[in-house]
Structures are given as C-alpha cells and as structure tokens.
Write a structure and sequence with these properties.
By secondary structure, the protein is of the alpha+beta class. Helices cover 31% and strands 18% of the residues. The protein has a four-stranded antiparallel β-sheet with strand order 3-4-5-6, with no helix packed on it. Strand 5 and strand 6 form a beta hairpin.
Length: 131
C-alpha cells in the first residue's frame, strides 16, 4: 500500500519502512503460528547436519527452495513466513490520530478506529526513538 486517505482528508503515506505512524499487529490467537512454530522450525534446521539442510529446505519451502543459502537468510525467511501469515498492518493518521487496521493478512482493506478526544498523537511511535 502506498497511501490511504483518512476520513479527515489527510493522506497517510506508507512508501517505506521504519515509519513512526505504522506498526504490525499480530492477533493473540496466532501466537503459535507467528512465534512458536517458526522458532521450532529454525531450531530444527540449525540442528541438522549441513548435508541434510537442502532437503529440509525443499520440504519446508517447496520445490523452488534455494539449495545453497546463508544460514542467516534461512532463519529470516522462516521467521518472516510465520509472521506474514498473521500480520495486520496498522496505520495512524498523523493529523487526527485515527487508527486504521488492515482487515486481514495480505488484504488491502482497512477499518478505522477513532480515538478518544484526549488521545495523544504518535501512539505507534517506537519507545526507542526520539519524539
């Protein structure tokens, strides 16, 4: 998604990563799919002897899986596979504070949620980043 028009008329841009008005949401019911299963798969991959890893990759990722890749890349793909199955994107209108939550993983539609009048802006901003 490149941009979404809020009800207040403000255009919410999403053309890059690390935006202070964007976050990922994972339903609690998908905890195992998002965290436990990918971690278990990563541990299983790391425990395999090097000669068995190509076969494991084919069985996990399918016939098009790469045969020779860096371990770091394999782990990133395993973790991303679990997260992308459940991830909902959340966007905050920087003008009015309305939150827009993606209707489903890999869907384009969004549902808006209006904040209380006392809402502070920047609710999705990282706690580690300067205000």
């Amino acid at each position: 998604m490149a941009k979404l028009e809020c009800d207040c008329g403000h255009l919410i841009h999403d053309g890059t990563d690390f935006l202070p008005h964007k976050a990922d949401l994972y339903p609690d019911q998908d905890f195992d799919r998002v965290w436990t299963e990918p971690v278990d798969a990563a541990v299983a991959f790391l425990r395999l002897p090097e000669g068995e890893r190509a076969g494991w990759l084919r069985s996990y990722f399918g016939a098009g899986a790469p045969r020779e890749v860096r371990v770091e890349d394999v782990l990133a793909h395993i973790l991303e596979r679990g997260r992308s199955a459940a991830r909902l994107e959340v966007l905050e209108c920087e003008q009015c504070g309305k939150l827009w939550v993606q209707l489903g993983p890999r869907e384009y539609g969004f549902q808006g949620y209006t904040p209380d009048p006392q809402n502070r802006r920047g609710i999705l901003r990282s706690a580690a980043s300067p205000a």
